Structure formats: structure tokens, C-alpha cells
């Protein structure tokens, strides 16, 4: 069986539906295919950018309430800024 075998592709396609993990990506020699490397780099850059986007806690709490999945609890941190929060995880969360 090879990666081009329909049974192999179907197996990985079905397994990918069960996880967000990057599995069964294929290979180009001993490395990942260029497309997969570029997609991973783009996803990583988006995640790094997302950390710095302001979070509207009130809007999220309202959305949680509106779907009836429970009462949200907002927490704060002893950090005085987002930058300090990211650099000092030891400051933790304060209810």
C-alpha cells in the first residue's frame, strides 16, 4: 500500500476528521511536503497574531449566556498588561 492508494487516503481522511492534529501529512523524501510546511507556518503566524488581538470578554459572556450552556465566570490576572501576562504566567488568574 502506498500513500496514493485510495484505502490509505480514506483511512487518513477519516482519522483527520476526529482530531485537529496534523496527522497523515505525507512526505517529500524525509521532510514534509512544501504545502504542509507553508500551511503550518501560516497557522503558527495566525496563532501568534491572535494572542495580541483584544478580547471582548463581555461579548463572549453574552454569547455563552445566549446559547444557554451555563453562566460564564470572568477571571483576571495579577499582570498589569497583556504583555506582562504573556511573559509572566506565574502571575496566574484571579477570580
UniProtKB/TrEMBL annotation:
- Kindly state which keywords UniProt assigns to this record, in alphabetical order: Lyase
Q: Does the keyword Isomerase apply?
A: no
**What InterPro entries does the database record attribute to this sequence?**
EutC, EutC_N
- Tell me which GO cellular component terms the UniProt record holds: ethanolamine ammonia-lyase complex
Which domain of life does the UniProt lineage start with? Answer: Bacteria
Q: Which GO biological process entries does UniProt record here?
A: amino acid metabolic process
What Gene Ontology molecular function terms does this protein carry?
ethanolamine ammonia-lyase activity
Pfam families from the UniProt entry: EutC (PF05985)
Q: By what name is this protein known?
A: Ethanolamine ammonia-lyase
Amino acid at each position: 500500500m502506498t500513500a496514493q492508494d485510495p484505502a490509505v487516503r480514506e483511512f487518513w481522511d477519516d482519522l483527520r476528521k476526529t482530531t485537529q492534529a496534523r496527522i497523515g501529512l505525507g512526505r517529500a523524501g524525509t521532510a514534509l511536503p512544501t504545502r504542509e510546511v507553508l500551511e503550518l507556518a501560516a497557522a503558527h503566524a495566525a496563532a501568534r497574531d491572535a494572542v495580541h488581538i483584544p478580547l471582548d470578554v463581555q461579548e463572549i459572556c453574552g454569547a455563552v449566556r445566549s446559547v444557554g450552556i451555563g453562566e460564564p465566570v470572568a477571571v483576571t490576572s495579577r499582570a498589569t498588561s497583556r504583555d506582562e501576562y504573556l511573559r509572566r504566567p506565574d502571575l496566574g488568574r484571579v477570580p
